[in-house]
Specification:
The chain is mainly alpha-helical. 69% of the residues lie in helices and 0% in strands.
Length: 291
Amino acid sequence: MAADIKKLRASNRQAGRKKSGTAAAFVFLAVLGAFMVFPIYLTLVMSVKPVEELFVFPPKLYAIRPTLDNFRDMFVAVRRNRVPFSRYLFNSVFVTVSVTAAQCVFSSMAAFVLAKCRFPGSRVINGVIVASLLYQSSVIYIMLYMVMARLHMIDTPLALILPAAASPLGVFLMRQSVSQLPDAMLDAAKVDGAGLFRICWQIVIPNQKPAFMTVMIFAFQSAWNIQGGSVILHEQYKTLPAAVMQVSSSGMARAGAVMAASVFMLIPPVIVFILAQRSVIETMAHSGISE
C-alpha cells in the first residue's frame, strides 16, 4: 500500500513538472509571437493615422482619429508619376510570378541532378552552392549590370526577372530534400524505361511538395520586393516597391501615403506564408547539411 502511494505521488510530481514546462513554453511562444505580430500591427495603425499623429512624441500605439485619407493620398501621389497605380501593381505581379516560377523550375531540376546524379565535380558544385549562401546579391551586382548591358536588357522587364531566376537557397533546400528520397524508387522508374526528365517531374517533384512550397514562398517574398531602380528607367516598367520608394522621397508630408502603400506591400507575402507555413517547418526539419 505504501509503495502504491509513493508511485502515485511520483506520478503526480512528474505530471506537475510536465504541466509547468508546457505553461512556460506557451508563455515563451506567446511573447515571441507578440514580437513577430507587432510590426504588422504597427504598420496597420500607422496607415490609418493622420499626418499630424505620425510624429507625435512619445509615439502612440493606436490612432486617436483614424482615417483612410492616407490610402487616397497614396493613389494620388502615385498617379503624379504619370503611370496609374494599376500599372505598378501589374508590373510587380508579373515580375513576382515570373521569378517564382523560374526559381521553382530551375531549383528543382538542379537539385535533382546534384542529389541523384553522379558526375565529376558534383561535390565541388555543392560546396560552391553552400558557400554562395554567405554572400548577398550586391556582391556581384556590377558584373550583373555589365552582362545585362551587353545583352541589351537594361530598361526591360528581363532586367528584373533573369538575375533573380536562380537562387542558391532554393537549390540548397531542394537538394537537401531530394537527397532524402530512396534511390530504389528512382531505380524502379529507370527499369520501367523512364528518362531523367520524366523521373524528375513525375516522381521526384511530386514527392517534394513541402520543399517545393518553401522555395515558392521564399521566391515570392524576394521577388515581390524587387525595385530595380538602377536598371529600370522608364516609369511604365517600374514595380510597386519602386513607386513606394519614389513617394517616400517626397518628404514627411507623404509619410502617411508611404505607410498605406506598405500595407499593400505587406498583404500578399503574409497571405502566401500563412497558407504554406507548415511546408516551411517540415522542410527546415530536413535541411541539415549531410555530406
